[in-house]
Structures are given as C-alpha cells and as structure tokens.
Amino acid sequence: MKNKVLLVILVISLVCAWGGVGTAGQIGYSMRGAEKGFGFKPNPDPPSSAVMAFDGLIGRPLGLASTIVGTALFVVETPLTLYSETTSEAAWGLVGRPAGWTFARPLGRREPVYEEPGVFQP
Predict the structure, then answer these.
(1) pLDDT tens figures, 89-114
(2) Is residue 53 exposed (0-12), middle (13-18) or buried (19+ Cβ within 10 Å)?
(3) CA angle 87-88-93, nearest 5°?
(4) What is d(CA 71, CA 3) in angstroms, rounded to the nearest whole number?
(5) Contact 54, 110 (CB under 8 A)
(6) Radius of gyration of the chain (CA)
(7) Comparing C-alpha atoms, which of 97, 14, 3 is closest to residue 89?
(8) How far is CA 63 from CA 36, 67, 100, in A?
(9) pLDDT of 42-80, one tens digit each?
(10) Taking the CB of residue 90, how many other CB atoms lie within 10 A of it?
(11) Nearby residues of 81 by Cβ (< 8 Å), 6 or more positions away
(12) How many CB atoms lie within 10 A of CB 17?
C-alpha cells in the first residue's frame, strides 16, 4: 500500500512538472529572446524583497498545491471534456494556468497571462 501511495505521488509530481514546462514553452518564456535583447527591457520598478519572500514562501507552495488539485480534477473531468471537445480549455484552466503561475512567472511579479478577467476583475 505504501508503495502505491508513493507511486501516485511520483506520477502526480511528474505530471505537474511536465505541465509547468509545457506551459512555459507555450507562453514563450524563453531565455533566448532575453539573451539576444529582443523585446527585453529591464523592469524599472522591481518587486521589493518582502513581496518576493511572501511569493516564495506562501505564493509558490499554494500555486503548487493548486496545480496538483487542478491536475487531479482534470484527470477526473477528462471524459466529460472529451465528449464536449473542451479538453484544451480544461487543461489550460485546471493545469496550465496554475502551473505557469507557479513555475514560469518571475518571482514577486504579476503576469496578466495567468489572471483571468471576469466577475472580480475589470
């Protein structure tokens, strides 16, 4: 039983890591552009150390937890999304957005790509 639990944890962590890497590649967070200087402009207002510490100690672990929960929900809801042909939207909303927010976003910064406009945001 203990081996099965460890196997499930390992599979979930690999799926989460794969989702984070895939999301980072899709969105275009590539260092090649920064190294060549294409569109790279230094941020004149970098985040404070307190914001970065809060993000690293609280925000990223919560993002990892939401990525794991989203992955589990995506696996459960996959048959429904296959029938309605909304698998890509479900994957982005449940796995891609939290994984990108956790793994691809610069520490202490907001990224509008991962913020969903809706009821609570103008």
Answers:
(1) 889 889 988 998 898 888 888 777 67
(2) middle
(3) 100
(4) 21
(5) no
(6) 17
(7) 97
(8) 31, 6, 9
(9) 666 788 889 999 999 999 999 999 999 999 999 999 998
(10) 19
(11) 87, 89, 90
(12) 13
Asked whether the beta carbons of 102 and 20 are under 8 A apart, the reply is: yes
Stated pTM of the model: 0.59
- CA atoms of 51 and 58, how far apart (whole Å): 10
Q: What are 1's two structure tokens?
A: 């039983």
Question: For residue 116, what is the DSSP state?
Answer: P
| Residue 120, token pair as written in the block | 């609570």
Query: Residue 61 is encoded by which pair of tokens?
Result: 């672990």
Place of tokens 């985040």: 47
The alpha helices in the chain, defined as continuous H runs, are 2-27, 31-36, 49-54, 60-84, 87-91, 97-103
Structure tokens that stand for 107 in this block: 């520490």
